[in-house]
Write a structure and sequence with these properties.
By secondary structure, the chain is of the alpha+beta class. The protein contains eleven helices and 15 strands. Homodimer.
Length: 391
């Protein structure tokens, strides 16, 4: 939207509400118009489609309290005193308070008290590229795009951290011209039209407008003798291998950012970033809850009753876990500091769940011994179902 259009458009009129309408009134008016003008209800009706776009644009400004305030203050500033911006009005060079070189972007782009108080400098400066005469240093090289890739790790690799090579093909700085775009031995020259800013201004009546320079396409420089390998872009597709350090404790689905490892910027501009999504395979022994490792330890009934010490695996070796006498099936035993390493230092815990392993068959001697034990257990008065289900 141009500067003139911004000020001349009457968004209140588009929605059919007064300038002091409440937010609820604006919302109701927009919903009613949008429903009747929606392209799905008016197929092939170009006028209805244009009206739908207009009311949507008006609602986008008026439904946002901050944008509405800036819009109202802008119109109020230019509507009074020096002649309006109506279809038959406008500022005439030499007859009002502004001359032919008047530019809204310059007015609000400067650090004036009014722009500072109202925030209009940010609003109009962003809308119109600050407008007016280009300033040195306003052109910024086009940064390269971000790139995304994936890698799959084993459970223990993800828990302990690992360095993995990633082979990928993407736009990278040209190795011949080192990203400058110019043939080796030559250099780009400053664009004479925009003086290296990448922006030119033009006047339309009483206003100045800023736009990217056509000669250098907004880059601020011109290459007379382009690099033959990248054709002056400074970029070429090539396959490369990147070594990625995956930190300990990475989770399944987590993204790792590698700054500056993405797509190369145009003519030596900064590269984008590389985002690596990590997938973690399940492990046959370990599970994970946050920074804690979990595992299920099979034990015999006699080990729970009499107690024992069992060797269990960890990420870096084995450790003995004491099972106290009389431990119930399903109890969780905690081994501190043998879980997943934490970024802040230290590690989580290892949570060991004991689970009775029931033999599927017994030899005669074991069967007789178990029967004898059962009789002795009953004789001692032990009843496993005492108090169960109302018994």
């Amino acid at each position: 939207m141009s500067q003139r259009e911004w000020i001349e458009k009457d968004f209140y009129k588009e929605l059919g509400v007064s300038s002091d309408a409440s937010q609820d009134e604006i919302k109701k008016a927009y919903r009613k118009l949008a429903s009747s003008l929606h392209p799905d209800k008016n197929p092939g009706d170009a006028k209805a489609e244009e009206r739908f776009k207009a009311v949507s644009e008006a609602n986008a400004v008026l439904s946002d309290a901050a944008k509405r305030k800036e819009y109202d203050e802008t119109r109020k500033l230019f509507a009074g005193g020096g002649g309006g911006f109506g279809r038959g009005g406008g500022f005439t060079p030499g007859t009002g308070g502004f001359g032919a070189e008047f530019n809204i972007g310059d007015l609000f782009g400067n650090a004036t008290n009014y722009a500072s108080d109202t925030g209009l400098g940010d609003l109009l400066g962003g809308l119109f590229n600050r407008g007016g005469t280009p300033r040195a240093g306003t052109s910024r090289p086009r940064r390269g795009s971000d790139v995304e890739t994936e890698t799959t790790l084993g459970f223990r690799e993800a828990a302990q951290g690992v360095t993995v090579p990633l082979r990928m093909t993407s736009p990278s700085p040209c190795t011949t011209c080192h990203g400058s775009g110019a043939k080796p031995g030559t250099s780009p020259r400053v664009c004479p039209r925009c003086n290296g800013t990448g922006i030119v201004s033009r006047n339309q009546g009483a206003f100045g407008f800023s736009e990217p320079c056509d000669d250098c396409r907004g880059s601020g420089s011109i290459i007379d003798d382009p690099c033959t390998d990248c054709h002056g872009t400074g970029i070429q597709n090539r396959t490369r291998t990147i070594t990625v350090r995956v930190p300990p404790g990475v989770n399944d689905g987590q993204r790792i950012k590698l700054a500056g490892q993405g797509e190369a910027g145009l003519r030596g501009a900064p590269s984008g970033d590389l985002y690596v999504t990590v997938h973690v395979k399940a492990d046959k022994v370990f599970g994970r809850v946050g920074d804690d490792l979990t595992l299920v330890l099979p034990v015999a009934y006699s080990e729970l009753v009499l107690g024992t010490t069992v060797s269990v695996p960890t990420l870096d070796g084995r450790v003995g876990v004491k099972v106290p006498a009389g431990t119930v099936d399903g109890r969780i035993l905690r081994v501190r500091g043998r879980g997943v390493p934490k970024r802040s230092g230290g590690a989580g815990d290892l949570l060991v769940t004991v689970k009775v392993a029931v033999p599927q068959s017994l030899n005669p001697a074991a069967a007789e011994a178990l029967k004898a034990y059962g009789e002795a257990e009953r004789a001692s008065g032990f009843d496993p179902r005492a108090g169960w289900a109302g018994a």
